[in-house]
Structure formats: C-alpha cells, structure tokens
Amino acid sequence: METVELTSVEKEKNNEMTETKKFSIKSTSKGLLGRWYHLMTLGRALDEKAPNYLKQAIGWSYHAPYAGHDGIQLAIGQVFDKETDHLFPYYRDMLTSISAGLTAEEVIFNGISKDTDVAGGGRHMSNHFAKPEWNIHNVSSCTGNHTLHAVGVGRAMKKYKHEGVVFSSQGESSVSEGYVYEAINGATNEQLPVIFVFQDNGYGISVPKKDQTANRKVADNFRGMKYLKIIHCNGKDVFDSMNAVLEAKEYALANSTPVIVQANCVRMGSHSNSDRHELYRDNAELNYVQEYDPLAKYRRMLVRYKRFTEEELQAIEAEVKLEVKKAHKAGLTAPDPDPASIYDFVLPEAYVSEKYPEGTHSFTGNEKKLIEGLNETLKAEFRHNPDTYIWGQDIANKDKGGIFNVSKGMQQEFGKERVFNAPIAEDYIMGTANGMSRFNDKIRIVVEGAEFADYFWPAMEQFVETTHDFWRSKGQYAPNITVRLASGGYIGGGLYHSQNIEGALTTFPGVRIVYPSYADDAAGLLRTSMRSKGMTVFMEPKALYNDPKAATPVPEDFEVPFGKARVRREGSDLTIVTYGNTTHMCVEVADKLAEESGKQVEVIDLRSLIPLDKETVLKSVAKTNKVLVVHEDKVFSGFGAEISAMITEEAFETLDAPVKRVGSTFTPVGFNRILERAILPNNDKIYAAAKDLLDY
Amino acid sequence: MKKIGLFYSFNTIKTAKNAEKIKNAFGDAVDIDKVNVEEIDEETFLSYDNMVLGVPTWFDGELPNYWDEFMPAIEDLKLKGKTVALFGLGDQVGYPENFVDAIGILAKALEERGAKVVGLTSTEGFTFERSAALRDGKFLGLALDIENQAALSNDRIKNWVEQLKAEFN
Q: Which value does ipTM take for this structure?
C-alpha cells in the first residue's frame, strides 16, 4: 500500500509539476488530493476519539493530540518510503504514522496497548506509534533522543551505499536537549542524509518557546553549520509542507547531507490529556489556534478551487466514519498482553560456544597480556565478520589506537570506514551505535563508550534507552553493540579516571555486563559479545592491561559464554566471590592464608555480572558455608549487595557466618595515592575480612 | 482617482478598525468599496484597478488563512495595470524576526503577476530584526503596530493615505 502511495507521489512529481511548487491545489491530481483528505480526516477522527478511551477507562492514558500539525505530518508520511527510508516519529506523530501507512486498527491497538500493537504489543506507552518491520521505529519518550538514532542509521546508509533518507521528527522544544545538537553536528560532520523535522507549535507542554531559546525559529540556531540546509515551511498547509519535505528529501539524496525542515504549526489542543492549556493560554489564543485548523483549511480549498464537491467530501467522511467504527470494534476485541510474557525479550539470544561451553581451556601456549588478548580478538573478529565497526574517542589516529592502544593497528588493517574516531560526545557515540545497529541485524558494533568508564555518564540516557529497545519492541529490534569501558582504579587517576560504574549499570534490565580479570577471559568474552545479539557492556580493568598477573595463554579461537563463572582457586573453607582487579588480590590472599593456616579458600571469578552464574556461587557456598564478596566498586549499593542478598535468600541454611563484603569506601576515589589506597580495597583489607570469616 | 477596492477580513477586529480609519482618511471624495477577503473570487478581485489590501501577519511570519487560501488564485491572475497598496498589523516586540512579513509575501506575489505596488513607507520609528516586507530599506506597505505603538497609528495612516492619493491613478 505504501509503495503505491509513494509511487503516486513520484508520478505527481514527474508528470504534473512543472513549476517550483510541485504540489498545489490546482496541479495535484484529484486522486492524490482525495487520498490526502481521507488520511487527514481519518487521523483527525482518531485524534479526537483517543481521549474517549481514557474517559471510558479502556486505555490510551497518554495522548498528545496532533491537530494543528496536519500539513507537515501528512507530508512526512507521504514522502517517507518504507522500502528505502527510515522514520523516527515522535509521540505526537499520529498522522505521520497514518500517512506512512499505519491503519486505523494499528493506531488503536497501540493507543489501548493491545498485544496486537505492531509497535511492541502494548509494552511501550500509548501514542508511541511504530512499525519496525517497515522501518518506522519504536522510539523513546525522552524527547528528541531518537535524533542520535537517526544519525546512526544515516551513517549505515552511507557506509552501505544505500539510496534512502532518514526522517527524524520532533517538537521544537526538544531541540533544547543537548543531544539534539550532538546529532545535528554529527550529521553535518559525517554528511549524512538525515532530515530533521521540527514541528513548531510554540510550546513545550506549557513552556513557551521564548523560554527555550533566543531565536523564534529554533532551526535558525543551526545556521552556522556546514553542509546543513534549512527549509522553513508552513506545517499547517498541506501543499507548502509537501513541497518542503519533498525538497528536503531530494536535497538529502542528491547531496548526502542533512536538512532541517522547520514547520510552523499550532497546537490546537492541550499538550496531552494530562495538561489543561486553558491554564496558560488566553481566550484570544485559544480562538486563533482554532482559526488555523489545517484540516478545515484544506477542506475549504478543495471546495473553493472546485477540486471536490461538498458531496464527494461527505462521502469520504462517511467512509472514514465506518473505518473508525470497524477499527474501534477490532480494538475492543483484540487480545491483551499476557502477564506471563513479561520476561520475554529482556535480552536477545547470546552466541553459543560449542567448542568452549564452560569458557575454560587447557591451552599452554605463550602468555599474552590482557591488552594483547583484546587487541587480537578485535582484529580476529573484524576479519571474521565484515559487518563489524568500532568507534570512540581517540580510537584511531595513525599509530594511536584508543586511549590505551587497545585498538592499535585496526584502522591500518580495516580502514577508516570501519575503524574511526568519534567526537568528544559520549551520548553521540552510544546513540549512533543504537541507530546504526537498526540498519540491519548483521551489523556488530563495538564502541569505546568513553575514554574512561567515569566519563560514561553523559551517555547514560542512550545507555538506558538501549537497554529498553529489545523488550519495548517485543523483540523486533536488538541493538547489537559491545560497549567497551576502561574501568577501575589503582592508577592514581582520581575521580574521573579511577571509578567503577557497574554498580549503577547492573540496575538496568536489558544489558549484559561482563568484567574479565585475565587475558584469556577477556578475549573469550569479547568474542562472545561481538557475535551475540543485544548489548553487552564490556568492563576492562585498565590496571591489568599490561600487568603480568593477568597474562595467560589465549587460544586463538577462545570463547567464554555469558553467565559462566570460573573457579580460579579451589577450596573448602571459605568462598570468595569476586571479579575484575580484585580477583588477583583474592587469589594472592587465598594463597597466603593457605600457606599460613592451611585453610583453603575458593576464589570464584564471576566474569559475567549479568547474567550471573548463581549456580557456581551457590554450589561453592554449600561446600564452604562461608562467603566473602569482594569487588573494587563501593560496598554500599555495589553489585556485591545483590550477590550477598541472593546468597542470604537462597542459601541461608548452609551459612555458618554472615556474608561479608569488601570494596571501596562510600566516597569518590581520591587522586592522591595516599587517599586512593585508603579508599580502594587491597590485599590487607581482603585478608582481614577473610581471616575474620575463617575464624568465625 | 479610480474607485478603490479596500480588501480586508470582515471577521477581524483590529484590521477592520484600521481599514475603517484608512477609508475615513481618504474622505468622501474618493469612491471606496469595502470588500470582505474571506468571500472574494477572482472576478471581484480583478474588478478594481486601485486596491488597498489589509494583510496582518500571523504567528511567525505567515499570511492569514484567508489570504493564503486565495494565493493559488493570484498565481494565475494577470495583474498588469493594477495598482495595489498594502497595510498590515504586526508586533515588532513579540515577533521581531518576522515583523509584518505578510505584507512582503503578498506584495511580492502580486508584483510577480504584474501589479504595481505603491505606498512604500519608511522603517523609521520601528525596531525589529528582520522583515520579509523590506525592499531597499523600506516597507512594501504601511506597517502598523497597535500592540506597541498604537498612539502612532493615526498619523501613520494619515500620512500614508496622503501618499496614496498621489500614487494611485
């Protein structure tokens, strides 16, 4: 259906438009004018019907009416081609979605959150219209957040020489978000065919645009950017909008550069059904926004210029009425989501290792440092899979390959198309990874999420967003990304070069988090991450990159499955559960205790925090009856709290002593080495705690 | 002087009030028809050789719907021999980036079809950033700002009408 729609547009363009204005009331074919009227009338009928579902307690508790944006929304949907383009609508884009091909039933299924909702089976909020199979993406409620995804798709289009454009649609107030600047800056710098449509209705909920930015038309804020075309149009007018969006697409395709379309709209209603615009708009304004009604204007013009008779329009209106009635009935009888399905699609399937099902080996070759394990595995995977990409800050400039040279030599071997620098913008790094991964599911992306894990915080909103995507889309989109983060202290780095952040990251469902301690595990886990679907955060204990303690023989094809801990030292008197930098300390303490007292301490290196190998931990606890949890991150609310609680809950009867924890103090990590030593765990602190437990 | 067609929306309040002032400033000696833009067709529009058009600027620099909806008709008209003067309300404080843009949008469209635009006025006394109504430092018509300079409107109208008396045929 959509192809036919767009074919008509193209036909219109080629055959009927001879002047600069390609679409006009006089030159556009009657068939197309009628189809538009049908779509606009259908959209408005649903827009006006939506609040009734809430009043009847059926659903659609969030509805942001689009009335007043009719022209531009019709145009985006009409110019979008699902065979070649990608579309990121925002929560007010009901008509955009209908114009792009969503049916009345699909809109209602989304509105009342039915299992049949094509956006994601009622998992995401109402009014978040999407159809991933048509490249109409399921986007966040964080306004403007999808601009980064649009840029990521644009990057993929360019790299794969794909003829198409990406539409990213948003309200004008969302342009106040910093990441929107990052997106547009990146799209211009990389020269990508992304069309950013700003639907300007003058308000961000109740905040007038004068409180957002100095220019009345926010697109003007971007005037200085190179390779950026800015088109202004009347978003309330069908023809001006059609001409503007088509011009934008033609320009983006011809030049492979981004375009901003700023569409002047009005918001005829409140922001949403939780807002009351009469609290902040006076009567004059409330009246004039009604005067502007784009649908009424379009209807008047159809009659005035004798393109349609009153009777013909009434016939279309009657058709729409029936269509809505039928869709409403379908909505009420559609199945609800099954509560038992909540655990489906939290994480997509991981790569299964057939050769190394336990993630262990008996290879006895030369020892390699942890950094060598990472570098060689990255290169091996890039040779194995041509659809692999890596970017980040400092990732590739001549002989430099990442802040710690983990990616050294990669750009020389794999070229600038696959190995490249990113701007100093962590959210951009993360958000464009999410976006590029949407282009096709063969792509595997590795990013250095930040120079140091401590700098990852600006990317958190994209990290959170990415953890939602697979679940929210009911498995329709898996972000296939490995996020590498150089983590931890013991380097005298202070507050932004020494911290651990996994305690915060592990609170989010939808991401795997691994934290190796040895070269072989680092190599094996990296290979598994890069072959799996979904997002994996790969924490790298940077203090161990070149430490001989972490060096091991590494089989060249080694694989470590997720959720498989490794017993680094066997024992029967105490279990220490640990990961990362502290694994080595725990092994050393265990050796010392054995030497001093003959007590045997079992050291479990978790390797994966999510998924967690509870089985190995509980089996060991059943044997030793005493547990010490050790990690470098803070004890308070650190990941060890979860391990400790799990053991207490599931193995209480087997315990002979309280579960103890050793980690950082509940302070930032100080820069002065004296402070750092006082804050981070070390052998002495671990020894004291272990001794306490052994003596308990 | 030939009869003047004074075109504006009868549904407006502020534009209508100023249209009335313009009519009065011409005095009874000049034959003026008031015409409701919301109901015009091509034939009515073409029946006057001298026209005064009321075109306030809406929102961020747009024509009002009633003029915008007539634009496709204008695009096909032959306006050679027609003399038009435009006046429009704008808000130089609230919308300094698009002050009286609508005057410029309509004036240029009429010129493209052959009309002669008269009644250009000085920008002196106004403070704004940009306007689509500017040409060679002058407005393509009479700018009125009753939101911020209401007290100046009467004199501005009086002077403009005197100018039009000389410029109309």
A: 0.94
